[in-house]
Specification:
It contains 22 helices and 17 strands. By secondary structure, it is α/β, with parallel strands linked by helices. 26% of the residues are buried.
C-alpha cells in the first residue's frame, strides 16, 4: 500500500511558524515530502485555515488527488492466503517465490499486486487469525531424524542375558517411525539400520539428521568443518541425502527422534516387559508388530495418525536407487581348516574341500545377512549368517566336503584310534564330540584340539582331566578340559615337594653331603 503522509499536520505546523527543516526533523518526515506538500499548497493557495474543518483524507485528496484512489484496498489484487498456506508445505516453496508468482499473475491480468512486505504481513495475520503455526519448519520429504533409544531390551540365549538396543528413525513431517532391535551399536549395524529404514519408508528424504555419535560423525568442532564418518557419508551420497549432524548438546534439533525414542520405552519396552525372549527373530517380530501399532495409533492432539500423514508425505520422498547401499565387512587371509570349514566370529562355515589349507577372503553382508567366501573374485560358498549370540555353530554344504576315499590326512577312524591310545576316558570324550555334530567333518577340529593337549601336558594329565570332565559335562570340549588340567596342576604345585627318599624337603634347602664331594673327582673323569 502507498505510504500516506499526514498533509494536514504539515500545513498546521507551517501555519504556526515552523520552518520546513524543523517540521521534517520534529515529525521524522523527509524534507522532500515537506517541501512537496508546501509547494503544492502554495500553488493552490491553500492554507491551514482553509482545511481546518476537513478530515485528513479530504486534505490528502486536495494535495494528492491522483494518489488518493490508490489508498483503497480494493484497488489491489488480494492474494489467496489459504492456497499460499497450503503451497508452503511443498518442498522448496518459500513466501518470496509465492509472492513472485502472484505478482506475475496479477500483472498479466492488468491488476496491481501488493508489495512483498504487505504480502508477508497479511500472511502472518492470516496465520494468527486461523491459529496456524506462525512459521512452518517441517515440510514433507525434506528430513528424517535418527538416533538410538536410551533404554534397552533383554534377550536370553542359552541362559545368558544379552542387551538389545533399539534404533529409531522418524520422518520429521509425518512423524512416521521405524524401530529396529540390534545386538550392538557398531558401525555396520548403524549403516544397516539406516538402509533398512529407507527401505521401510520406500523413499529417501533430502537430509538425514543424526546425533554426534561416533558411528556417524568423526569430528564436530565449535568452529570449522564437520567431519563425517566416511562410510556414513558414502551412504548419504548413495541415496542423495545430506547427512546433517545436530548441534552438540542441542536435542531440539531432532525433537521427533527424541520423542519417538521416549515413546519406545512406553509403547514397546514397557508393553513387552513381561515376555521373555530366547530367540532374536522372535523379539524382532514382536517389535515390528508394536511398531505398526504405534504408527497406526491416532494422534492425541491432532487429526489422523502417523500412517495417514505418511501416505501424504510418501510422494515427496526421493526414489530409492536400483541397488541398496552395500553394508559389508571383509576379512582377508582366512585359512580353510582340514574339515573344509573356515572359522568366522566363533562359528564355522564350509568351503570346497579343494581349498583346504589355502587362504580365502570372507565377506559378511549385513544387507541380506549372508556370509560369502571368495578366492580373489571367485565366489566359493554362501551361508546365512549366524546371530551374534551364536557360538561354535556349523553351516555346512554337503557338496563342500571331500569323499571319504580321497581324505586320508584326517578321518574319524584315525582320530578315535589316537584317543584310545591315550585312554578310555579320552576316547569317550571324542566319541561324544562326534555324536554332537551333524557331519563327521565338523568334529575334526574340536577333537584334534582336545587330543593335542596330550602333547602339551602329557597323556596321563589329559586322561585324568577327561575323567573329571565326563562326570560334570555332557559333551566336554577343549575349553573345559584345558581348564580342568590347569586347575589340577595348580593343586599339585601347592602340595609340599618330596626328596628322592620320599621325605619332604626342608624350607632351609637341600645340602649335599661329604660323600658327594669325595666322589666328585671320580665322576668327572679325573678332572677337578
Amino acid at each position: 500500500m502507498i505510504r500516506k503522509v499526514n498533509v494536514k499536520l504539515i500545513l498546521e505546523l507551517r501555519d504556526k511558524g515552523l520552518s520546513r527543516t524543523e517540521i521534517a526533523a520534529s515529525r521524522h518526515i523527509s524534507r522532500r515530502l515537506v517541501n512537496e506538500v508546501c509547494t503544492i499548497a502554495q500553488q493552490q493557495n491553500l492554507s491551514y485555515r482553509d482545511v481546518i474543518t476537513k478530515s485528513e483524507d479530504e486534505v490528502y485528496k486536495l494535495i494528492y488527488p491522483h494518489k488518493y484512489e490508490y489508498l483503497n484496498d480494493d484497488f489491489y489484487a488480494k492474494p489467496d492466503y489459504r492456497e499460499i498456506h497450503s503451497e508452503l508445505r511443498r518442498v522448496g516453496v518459500t513466501l518470496k517465490l509465492l509472492w513472485q508468482e502472484y505478482a506475475a499473475k496479477t500483472r498479466k491480468e492488468n491488476k496491481i499486486p501488493v508489495k512483498y512486505t504487505k504480502f508477508c504481513t497479511d500472511y502472518g495475520n492470516y496465520v494468527e487469525e486461523h491459529e496456524f503455526t506462525s512459521h512452518i519448519v517441517r515440510k514433507p520429504g525434506v528430513s528424517c531424524e535418527v538416533d538410538w533409544a536410551g533404554k534397552t531390551m533383554s534377550l536370553y540365549d542359552h541362559g545368558k542375558e544379552h542387551k538389545v538396543y533399539l534404533f529409531v528413525g522418524v520422518l520429521s513431517y509425518s512423524r512416521y517411525t521405524y524401530i529396529e532391535p540390534c545386538l550392538d551399536m557398531k558401525m555396520n549395524t548403524w549403516l544397516k539400520c539406516n538402509v533398512n529404514m529407507l527401505n521401510f519408508f520406500k523413499g529417501a528424504p533430502l537430509q538425514i539428521i543424526c546425533d554426534n555419535l561416533k558411528t556417524g560423525v568423526t569430528k564436530h568442532p565449535r568452529e570449522g568443518d564437520i567431519i563425517l564418518n566416511t562410510e556414513y557419508e558414502r551412504l548419504g551420497n548413495h541415496y542423495h541425502a545430506a547427512i546433517m549432524p545436530a548441534r552438540v548438546k542441542k536435542p531440539k534439533d531432532k525433537p521427533n527422534a527424541e520423542n519417538a525414542a521416549g515413546d519406545c520405552c512406553t509403547f514397546i519396552i514397557a508393553r513387552l516387559r513381561n515376555r521373555t525372549f530366547s530367540n532374536f527373530n522372535e523379539l524382532c517380530m514382536a517389535v515390528t508388530i508394536k511398531n505398526a501399532e504405534y504408527n497406526d495409533r491416532p494422534f492425541s492432539k491432532a487429526d489422523g495418525s502417523r500412517l495417514e500423514m505418511f501416505r501424504q508425505e510418501q510422494e515427496f520422498l526421493q526414489s530409492l536407487p536400483a541397488f541398496a547401499f552395500d553394508v559389508s565387512q571383509w576379512r582377508y587371509k582366512v585359512k580353510v581348516a582340514p574339515n573344509s570349514h573356515i572359522a568366522y566370529k566363533k562359528n564355522f562355515y564350509s568351503c570346497p574341500h579343494s581349498y583346504i589349507g589355502h587362504d580365502v577372503s570372507v565377506c559378511e553382508s549385513f544387507n541380506d545377512n549372508m556370509v560369502r567366501i571368495y578366492d580373489r573374485d571367485i565366489l566359493l560358498a554362501s551361508h546365512p549368517r549366524f546371530p551374534e549370540t551364536s557360538v561354535n555353530r556349523y553351516s555346512t554344504h554337503a557338496e563342500d566336503l571331500p569323499k571319504q576315499s580321497h581324505y586320508v590326512e584326517f578321518d574319524k577312524e584315525r582320530i578315535e584310534k589316537w584317543a584310545k591310545s591315550i585312554g578310555n576316558n579320552t576316547a569317550q570324550v571324542i566319541k561324544r564330540i562326534f555324536s554332537s555334530c551333524d557331519f563327521e567333518q565338523q568334529g575334526y577340529n574340536p577333537c584334534l584340539s582336545v587330543l593335542r593337549l596330550s602333547s602339551k601336558y602329557g597323556k596321563s594329565e589329559l586322561e585324568r582331566a577327561c575323567e573329571i570332565a565326563l562326570g560334570k559335562i555332557s559333551t566336554p570340549r577343549y575349553k573345559h578340559i584345558n581348564a580342568i588340567i590347569l586347575e589340577q596342576q595348580g593343586k599339585d604345585s601347592a602340595a609340599p615337594l618330596a626328596n628322592f627318599d620320599g621325605k619332604p624337603l626342608q624350607h632351609e634347602g637341600y645340602l649335599r653331603g661329604a660323600d658327594y664331594y669325595a666322589n666328585l673327582k671320580q665322576r668327572s673323569g679325573g678332572k677337578a
